[in-house]
Structures are given as structure tokens and as C-alpha cells.
Amino acid sequence: MNPLDNIYVVLVGTLYTGNVGSACRAMANMGIRHLRLAAPNLQNSWDEGERMAVHATDVMNAREEFASFEEAVADCIAVVGTTAREGLYRQHVKAPRDCAADILALASQGKVAIVFGREDKGLLNEEVAQCTHLVRIPVDEGYTSINLSQAVLITCYELFTASGRYEPPHEKAPPAVQAQKMQLMKNWANMLCGIGFMKPEQTDHFMQGFHRVFSRGVFSRDDAALMLGVARQALWAADKAKNANPVKEGDNG
Amino acid sequence: MNPLDNIYVVLVGTLYTGNVGSACRAMANMGIRHLRLAAPNLQNSWDEGERMAVHATDVMNAREEFASFEEAVADCIAVVGTTAREGLYRQHVKAPRDCAADILALASQGKVAIVFGREDKGLLNEEVAQCTHLVRIPVDEGYTSINLSQAVLITCYELFTASGRYEPPHEKAPPAVQAQKMQLMKNWANMLCGIGFMKPEQTDHFMQGFHRVFSRGVFSRDDAALMLGVARQALWAADKAKNANPVKEGDNG
Fold first, then answer.
1. Assign residue B2 a region: left if phi > 0, alpha if psi is -120 to 50, beta otherwise?
2. Residue B150 C-alpha, separation from nearest chain A C-alpha, in angstroms
């Protein structure tokens, strides 16, 4: 099974539907689709929520509502509280990245609640005391107040990336091998002499600079083929010009 | 210097001030404070932007505006484009976590632009072609459309965490040493016999279970002291009851 299917985002005492909608979109981005509202205290209509959810209204519409925190997490085998503050009950708090793997391991065994507090007051001490795990999102100490849906995003993002369900992008063209890179240097040296950029005796000197650029810039077979094509074409164009209007070396007229 | 001070978030052709405000708050959370708008195409008033920025209006008010993408990044030594799509110019895209260290290294040498496209169309191909680096945020393939300010948050979060400027929370109480843990087991065995939970000959059997619980649950000196206190108090309470109302072992009256 996919452990992300056992992750339940629980929003406690949320005030604004826009944050619920934004949270739904963030959850959908990260492959997490179960939303629970515990004792919601919504101050505005669902119009704003729907606007912010965009195409994640299915997540929002499938939400479950509970009268209390306790009821919303009763069937969960782990309750992960998110907190921005330090304090008595908050000593064993971890960064989300540092506990994402543990949380996913639990989620492979049963439902896991990830709990987010009120926009203005966060989670109450008595709620924090009911959590089996606590996480705090890394923020700059100069501005620690993070938006509710942004907190949901970071936490879900860490679970999603830790789940290994995302394949990081990778260069599609296969890497160039050394022989191809050396051929590239040789053909460029020929071309640079052929077009009069340098004299044959300057080859070693100038090629050091091109080697520096190419060693950083030419990675794939496609890169190497592209730059080989430049050398070929430049020589062709230079030869064509010479044939059309022949000039002898050292001829100034 | 702090490389985050050389990070410039560049929003291109942004439509909604609310996204600008949310982006400012996300940036402030992650210690990044330079905002540039390139050819903004704002469809609503700054009221919404100020509402979403909350206390990060200083970031928003210090924004610089430019008529074009080119002008907004002209003084940057690296231009990191964010893209949700694959395609011709997008082959060498990386996940933000995988290039955060490289970006910070560049930011220690000069200004680095992190560029975010329009809400509806992202970055145009001709803009992507001007980027020196491309990043794509990991998202679930079932719902890849990420909100602009959420994209800003994830990217800034990865730079912030990679900058090492955040000290992850850690357990404040020092870890318990093995001798203290073994004392705990011994005192609990005495107590459990003393309160009649088990008979002395059952000690090995039952203590396996307590060992399992304590080895997972008792980590710090404070944890161990707490559980040692329970053993002491339970024995004291049991002795007191026995003295007040003496019962002989096996006495059923």
C-alpha cells in the first residue's frame, strides 16, 4: 500500500475557508487526500475555500468534520502535532524532514494524523499533550509566523519526497564518454586554426580555456554532438569563403 | 556574508496581488527578503496583497519593479527558472533540494535570481532559454498545478534549510546512560512485586515487556527520573496501605 493514503491532515479550529482550500491544493500536489476538520470555527463562506482549492475541490468536498480534536484523531495510531513554539510539552519536537521516514513507517501500519492548529493560536497545550509526535517547521527567527496552508504544504512535501513516489528529474540524454570529449577538443582545435582564431603554435594555450568551458558545459552526448557540429560547420564555411576568394597565408592584399 | 541576502525572487507577469503577498510572507519565513516584479500584470488592488503578506509587508513594500524579464535579471550571475513542465529547453531540470547547495554557492559570489512564471502560463520558452539553471518542484503526477506562493515557499525553504542558518530542534534533556536505565528496570521489578503486579519468580517474564516499552520510550535523564519516581511512589503507597491494613500473603480474609 501507499503510506500517503494513510495520512490524515487534521485542521483544528480553523478560521478561514481560504486556508482550507489552499491546504487542499497543497495536499493534492503532494499526493495526500484525506482532510479532517476538528471543531472548525469558520468565519467566512466556502466560496473563498473553493476559489483557493482550484482543482482540488474533490479533496475539500470529501472532508470529514468532527466536533473535537479527540474525535478527529481517535482512530489514528499516531498523532503528529505541528507547533511553532517551544515549551513544556514541546521538548521532543523534530524538523519534518527528520521524522518523515518514521511517520511513513507508521502510516504503513495504520492511520496517522498530522494536526495543524488555529491560525491565531496554534494548538493548545492540552492538544499538544495528546500528540505522539511533534514537528516544527524550520523558519527564520526573524519571522516565524507561517501561514496555515504553507505549514500544511511543507509537512506534506516532506512526507511526499520521503515516500520515494516522486522520481527526480534527470538529464535524458546519456552522458558523453571521454573519447567523444577528446574528439571534440581536437576538432575544435582544427577549426579554430582553420578560421584563423589562433595559429597552430598557440593551440596548447588557447585550448586550455576551451577545455575549461567545455569541461563544465558539455555533459551529454547531445551537448558534444552539438559542439562538434559547430566545428564542422565553421570549417566548412571558412573553406567555402577561401575557395570563393582565395587568399594565401600571409597575403595582405 | 549570508548567501540568502543575495537571493532575488523574481515574479514574472504575476496576475494577483494576493499571490505576491503570500510569496512575501513565505520569503520572510525563510529568511529571503529581495522581491522583484518583472512586467507585472496585476488584476486586483494591493489590499489583497497586504492582507496576505500579514507582517511581511516590509518585503512587499521594498519590491523593485522592472519592465521586462531581461531587465529584472540583468545584474544576476545566475538565473534559476522554476518550471512545472518538461520540454525542449527543460531537460536539465533538477529538484530544488538537489541544487540548493550549488545555488547558495553562487549566491556567495553575486546576485542570484529565482524566477517564477505567471499563474496561468508559467515561464515562456524564450524566458526559460535565458535561465542558467532550471528547477522543478516534486509534485504528485495526479495534481501538478502548484500555487505560485507555494512554489516560492518550497524553493525558499530548500535554500533556507540548505543554508544551515536554522538549528533543528533537539531534545534538551541529556540522554540517560545505560546504568540509569538498568537501575530503572531493577527498581520497577521491585515495585511491581511490591504492589502485587507480579510474583518474584515471574520477574524475568514480565520485565521483558517493560524492557520493550522502556527501551523505546525512555530516552533522556528526565524520562528515566520520571519513571524512577513512579516506582518509588508506588512502593511507598503500597507499603503505607499494608501498614494501615496489614494483610498476610495468601490471606483471603
1. beta
2. 7
